[in-house]
Design goal:
heterotrimer; A mainly alpha; B alpha/beta; C mainly alpha; A: 6 helices; 0% strand; B: alpha/beta; Rossmann fold; six-stranded mixed β-sheet; 27% strand
Chain lengths: 233, 244, 222
């Protein structure tokens, strides 16, 4: 029974993997060929598509961690916890990409890799909170307790994000930063909008694909552990 | 308790109780029922799950599966009602070293909402033979004395069920008799008792029933009175193996 | 009196009594607070107008780090001596236990600040001993104590111990830190306008309290 289930899963993953690959290639084409080069910023503006799709993935991930954490506390299950942890890892990966792509974009645009702008500060803190979230399980000996603690941080961390953002924003109103050239929604040409949306969809596919792979590794690891602990075959 | 009819006569009722630590099984399908004022001794070698059983019965640990009712209250639905009715003596004394024996009893009594605490604390400390040193900080008492204070602490709210995890550790002969009198209810009102021990003789003397726990399973249960002591000793040795 | 109220009072009274006899918590926190005020002054060479700018930040860093040091120890103490398990076997609602532990932590921190604040006023020559700053201090400290109580219950059960508490507490309490520093700065410098920091601080306290009150059971239980 379990074997059929696994075979089915492999089939879904194959499709998902191919779709992500094709989508990625298409996204590259859209980003570098289809969309026009932005007049003021030049070619570096292309990083925007990756930047936006990454932060979308990060927020989606942490939202899913939040939901899974609540579900876990209501009804503890190893599967819910694995789901939450896998999404947290993906979230941290894409937050890292967001921070790096932001710095690459920021250097030629603002003249600096880093500025204590509310969005940047919030993203950095977000990254820190979820790095600690991932570390946490390793600090606790009893696995069940570790999962429970992670769920607590998964909830407090997510609720904290808008509060952090608000406080940093109000804090910065007293010391306004140099004006930052930002792309405002309505002025974006339609081709850019299509590309942004397409990138978001493809990145979401990539995240789902990676999480599914991660969950399968977890399951294999756990069945290996169970085999090792069982007295006989 | 007039609030529930059929269950009220049972002090402890455990159905299919199980506890896993990850993939490791510590308790497996434990079925247990204990009437009011009935006493059960749980025997078993180290690592057989005795401490886990007491932890689960005392609500300190959530069972991985199964259900537990104490004095008719479900341990998941009404954990605080369960806690109100149980007194626990475990490996740790639960005592604050900086507080005196009397202050410890009064503190815990206040958490349980016990009335006439000062009188009751003195009475219990007298009973466990600590009265003369009741104002000394617990940290300055010997291990055996602390164990006796822990016994008094477990009784401070007059629980209907007493759970004792190897209560005989650190007690000398004189105070083992004291323990016996507290457990069997010759000096204080009787109550339901579950105690774990290594000592088969003590188990048979103190309790109406004995059970053997091996690898997380209740492998053997019998009434002390109707029991062939040699047969039990054989069974115990066989199950516990060389651990004895 | 309601049982929950009596339970809260019993736990707070017990914590104060234990601390009065053990003295290891307040002594450590106080020494640390005074020490860091001196170290900051030496490291930054604070003279002239910089003090007004940087002072509130230093004050709150001192409070935050002293709080982490102190709150980490309260639960470690209960955990290591096995008394936490005894507390949990009592029929005390976990939310009630949270309030009790929070109050005990808050009292310890306020005692620490009762010494640190005058020391700060003296060493940095800033007018912090006024009602507005004291009110801000209480509200800000409450914020640290709320999340600190929840996280220190978790840290006590972990291998990383005192190291885990700052990792959890510092990023999540950024809003409290910003709010407290800004409010203190405005109160000292008499600045008008800008966001209502004290109100925000209270709002943050309310949000953190609600979440922690609901989650504490999961943090503290075995």
């Amino acid at each position: 029974m379990k074997r059929i289930e696994k075979g089915e899963r492999r089939w879904v993953d194959d499709i998902l993997g191919v779709a992500t690959l094709v989508g990625m290639v298409a996204a590259l084409w859209l980003v570098f060929v289809y969309t026009p080069v932005e007049l003021v910023q030049g070619a570096v503006q292309k990083v925007f598509y990756i930047h936006l799709a990454s932060i979308w993935n990060a927020y989606l991930s942490f939202f899913l961690v939040f939901v899974a954490s609540i579900l876990y506390l209501r009804r503890p299950s190893a599967a819910t916890d694995r789901f939450a942890r896998a999404w947290a890892e993906i979230g941290v990966v894409f937050t890292t990409i967001t921070l790096i792509s932001g710095a690459i974009w920021g250097k030629p645009t603002w003249g600096t890799y880093w500025t204590w702008d509310p969005r940047l500060t919030t993203t950095l803190l977000l990254w820190l909170i979820y790095v600690v979230y991932i570390m946490l399980r390793g600090f606790v000996d009893d696995p069940e307790r570790g999962r429970r603690y992670a769920a607590i941080v998964g909830i407090i961390g997510f609720i904290d994000v808008p509060i952090v953002h608000m406080s940093v924003r109000w804090w910065r109103t007293l010391h306004p930063d140099p004006i930052v050239a930002r792309l405002e929604g309505p002025e974006l040409p339609m081709s850019m909008w299509y590309t942004v949306l397409f990138c978001i969809v493809v990145f979401t596919l990539l995240a789902v694909f990676l999480v599914r792979q991660r969950l399968q590794i977890d399951e294999l690891r756990e069945s290996l552990l169970a085999l090792r602990l069982s007295p006989r075959q | 308790m007039g609030d529930s009819d059929s269950v009220a006569s049972l002090a402890v009722e455990a159905l299919g109780l199980a506890k896993n630590y990850g993939p490791q099984v510590a308790l497996d399908q434990v079925e247990l029922s204990l009437g009011e004022n009935e006493r059960l001794a749980v025997l078993g070698p180290n690592g057989s799950g005795k401490t886990t059983l007491i932890s689960v019965l005392s609500t300190a640990m959530r069972p991985s599966a199964g259900s537990l009712r104490i004095m008719g209250y479900d341990s998941t639905d009404a954990p605080n009602d369960v806690r109100r009715h149980i007194g626990v003596v475990a490996h740790r004394t639960y005592l604050y070293e900086e507080l005196s024996a009397r202050e410890n009893l009064i503190f815990y009594g206040r958490l349980f909402g016990t009335s006439d605490l000062a009188v009751r604390a003195d009475m219990l400390l007298d009973l466990v033979d600590i009265y003369a040193r009741r104002h000394d900080q617990v940290g300055s008492l010997s291990r055996g004395m602390q164990q006796r204070v822990a016994l008094a602490r477990a009784l401070v709210h007059d629980p209907a069920v007493l759970l004792l995890d190897e209560p005989d550790t650190g007690l000398d002969q004189e105070h083992l008799d004291l323990l016996a009198s507290l457990v069997t209810g010759s000096k204080i009102p009787p109550r339901a008792v579950i105690l774990t021990t290594h000592n088969l003789e003590r188990a048979l003397d103190l309790c109406h029933r004995v059970a053997v726990l091996a690898q997380g399973r209740l492998a053997y249960q019998a009434d002390s009175a109707s029991l062939d002591r040699t047969a039990l000793l054989d069974a115990y040795r066989r199950l516990a193996g060389a651990a004895l | 009196m309601n049982l929950a109220v009596r339970q809260v009072l019993a736990v707070v009274h017990k914590d104060l009594m234990v601390e009065m006899r053990a003295r290891d918590l307040l002594n450590v926190m106080l020494t640390f607070a005074v020490l860091s005020l001196i170290i900051f002054n030496l490291a930054l060479d604070l003279r002239g107008p910089t003090v007004q700018e940087v002072g509130p930040g230093l004050l709150w860093l001192t409070i935050a780090f002293a709080a982490i040091l102190g709150m980490g120890r309260t639960f470690v103490r209960e955990h290591d001596r096995g008394t936490l398990a005894g507390l949990l076997l009592a029929p005390i609602d976990r939310g009630t236990l949270f309030v009790a532990k929070l109050l005990a932590n808050l009292i310890f921190l306020l005692i620490m600040e009762a010494v640190a604040l005058p020391m700060f006023a003296l060493l940095f020559n800033l007018p912090v001993l006024r009602p507005s700053v004291i009110l801000i201090t209480v509200c800000g400290t409450l914020g640290f104590a709320i999340l600190g109580t929840t996280f220190s219950a978790m840290a006590a059960h972990s291998r990383a111990r005192e190291a885990l508490l700052p990792l959890l507490l510092l990023p999540t309490t950024v809003p409290i830190l910003i709010g407290a520093v800004q409010a203190t700065s405005n109160a000292i410098n008499g600045a008008e306008g800008g966001p209502p920091w004290l109100g925000l601080l209270i709002a943050f306290d309310v949000i953190f309290f609600t979440v922690s009150y609901l989650l504490f059971a999961f943090a503290v239980e075995g």
